[in-house]
Amino acid sequence: MMKGLKKWRLFALLTALTIFLAGCGQQELSTLLPAGEVAKDQFNLLLLSSGIMLLVILVVVLIYVIALLRFRRSKLGEDHIPEQVEGSHTLELVWTVIPILLVLLLAVPTVYYTYKLGDVSAMVAVNEDGDAENLVVDVTAKLYWWEFEYPELGVVTAQELVVPMDERVYFNLIAADVKHSFWIPAVGGKLDNNVENVNKFYLTFEKDSRDLDEGVFFGKCAELCGPSHALMDFKVKTLTRPEFDEWVLAMQATEGATADKDSADMGEAVFANSCISCHAVSGVDDPAYMGVDHAGAVGPNLTTFGDRNRVAGFMDHDEESLKNWITDTQKYKPGNTMPSFDHLSDEELDALTGYLMGLTIEE
Amino acid sequence: MSSVAQKKGFGAWLWDWMTTVDHKKIGILYFLGGAFFFVLGGIEAMMIRIQLLNPESTLISAGLFNQLITMHGTTMIFLAAMPILFGFMNAIMPLQIGARDVAFPFINSLGFWMFMFGGIFLNISWLAGGAPDAGWTSYTSLAITSPGHGVDFYSIGLQLAGAGTLMSGINFLVTIINMRAPGMTYMRMPLFTWTTFIASAMILFAFPPLTVGLFFLTFDRLFGANFFDHTMGGNTIIWEHIFWIFGHPEVYILILPAFGIFSEIFPTFAKKRLFGYTSMVFATVLIGFLGFMVWAHHMFTVGLGSTANAIFAVATMAIAVPTGVKIFNWLLTIWGGSIKVTTPMLYAIAFIPSFVMGGVTGVMQGAAPLDYQLHDSYFIVAHFHYVIVGGVVLGILAATHYWWPKMFGTMLNEKLGKVTFWFFFIGFHMTFLIQHWLGFWGMPRRVFTYMDGQGWNLANYISTVGAFLMAIGVIVLVINAIMTTVKNEPVANDPWGDGRTLEWATQSPPLYYNFPQTPLVRGLDTVWIEKQEGNKSGFTPAVPLQDIHMPHGSIIPFLMSFGLFIAGFGAMYRLETAWGLPLLIFGLLWTFVAMSVRSVKDDLGYYVPKEEILEDMKREGGQK
Question: Please, which residues have CB within 8 angstroms of residue A185's CB and are 6 or more apart in sequence?
Fold first, then answer.
């Protein structure tokens, strides 16, 4: 009996502790653990608005509880006829003016931050040499994956956004098929990828993704876009500026890389036969290459596939998941546009996954 | 046409309900139709929550899940909440203003049948290859590419139901303007009548945009138009604007009548006049007006630009002021009153903190930069359920208990009512409170599953358990309703004992002509005034006893709606079948012929002779 009680106590304590610790969510994707300037601005606004709103709730609940305790018919008797009060101008004035003041208190920072976060004028700023001063990333959302192109650097990648830390990174957002919405909860609020116009905004990344349990920030699609909307995840890697420059150089060095049908590497040959018409293995955005512009590709660019954190944006990054994915894409991401390659032999599949996992530009 | 209960055959009984133009019967039809769809939408909600109970669940497929969320939202808003509120408006509002019926009984019936056929049309999609799956907002880039006929069922079904709503709205407006009893000035109207009035005015302006938008969508999908196809010069953002220009006022169309319901219940069970009646009326008008000024706050992340976002953010926050006025007026109504906690009062008491929670999270999302984080996350799911369930549904449940005796002539069991309340109330907060945090923790809405390891598991589990509690509450309510109906113990005019408005001065349920004589209204809460002055009936006639003019029933509204219903199928299958186009033409012709018959045939109604009314009065007098 005592033992059971003790166990129960321990359980309750653990539960309470878990709930408390979980109160802020996971740092890979919680808006309550902001990892950048934009998310911090928004978090501050959250604190301010929550504070005002808790005050309102407190006042309402106070009056409410007192009224409910004091004015019960069971206390006053069935025959008690309350005074039929019409109203009170003073009171009504009070509860009109005070809410107006509270709303104003919230409205001023709201308007300030709206303009601050909407300011993308620095996007076109250039230095003396005519080079862009700020990093710009073009994000194209497709069913159900993300393409990230760095137009000034001539580099393109997919599914895993790589960005430098501690500077404003500007984004051009558009959707290639239906509407999507680009959201990295820990780093800042979302903006829609519309089909007909480019949306622009900026984010700042101030936390090293290598310090996270998962090693990456989680990005989400926030607009219903079809059956696999829930699985349209992407990941974000943050690097220091010098590391980022190195990454860009390594990407640029993959210029012209391709897969050879006659390669001695069976995986490369399979890739050249089955995959390369949709998936590029060069990270350089070269319109002349194979007649297709990489940005605007049919399938995600796989140049850095071996460096990535997930397969298909959400599955574990291992050979088993990769094989499952390749052989039955509809089972794992219903409605996506990649055909299933269930006709590949086990040997071919082994070789292909080995080849894909070897596509890496990081040491 | 005698009021004496007669033994009738089933056929005659059915015919009576199908042809009725009596506002009380149409009210009951609306109520029962809405209740049916409420249960259906509830089952869809339970399937959603069961799928989300555990991470990476494979119980329900991704495609089916999207159909479920779409139909849950569409059903609950258009086919459950609105019709049930219309049921109360129909059954109660004419009584509250001392009218014999609504201004246009025929159109009233037409409105109901349009809603019913629209609802059936929409739900036939489940059996005809899949329900709509683009969300209840049906954003067009997805909606115009959605395969199959799901979205066509959405656009045509809502077109039918929406037309019915628009008719009813106009009907209520005309009724309230023209048919108030002598002495019932605007500033003596009960708050439920006022909110019906404002909600109807909002319907008048909000539903035409929906009609236009749905026609665009239908034509894009079925007749090769390109309103929303950006590759052909169309624009998808236009749909978002059109939808929310309708959609935001719609929220207030739902919540204002609920406010009205609570404004009736608080004074009744606190035995005290509504505090600040005048400011309540003006707050209602102001909310109705501002409701049209804030639609773009649903679109802060669409990229409308900083200036548009800032303007709509401030306008949104402004609505908090009149809403706050209402909350404090209710608080001051019970302050100093004599509170009796009946089941309806229990709901009213629970409404205040629940709705305040939903209101303040609304203001938080009104802060545009913060909304960039909260938009389309589970936070918004929590917010609008706090508003719709904590406001509208609690209002509906309160009114169900409060007006059940007036509508059906018998009382719902109070004990079971309280059981329902506690299950529903605790389940509601358990389901949705935690969802605010799910939003903070980065969980997007409308996801058919979620991966393990994102910290969302426990919260989703709690949420689903809460949903089961709500379901138990609703089941108890259904049992209560059935038991009460079977027992059928008749009640007096004013079974609550503290009725203040005119509906409590006539029989429960009222005779088909409502009042033997048109009542005289001597002030706000006229029944209360009469009773305080010693007039136990609470009723003073304004005119001598005379013959009463009443409208005839008609099957034409049913036939007109049915024609449009089959024309809808014709339009949908026009391209792939040979019978589609003929069916479309036939359906439209059918409706047109029915309309012509209505126009050509003179129906001047009939008179209830004075003698019959006298007899009814004697019998009623003898019973009590």
Answer: A29, A30, A31, A39, A218, A220, B373, B377, B441, B442
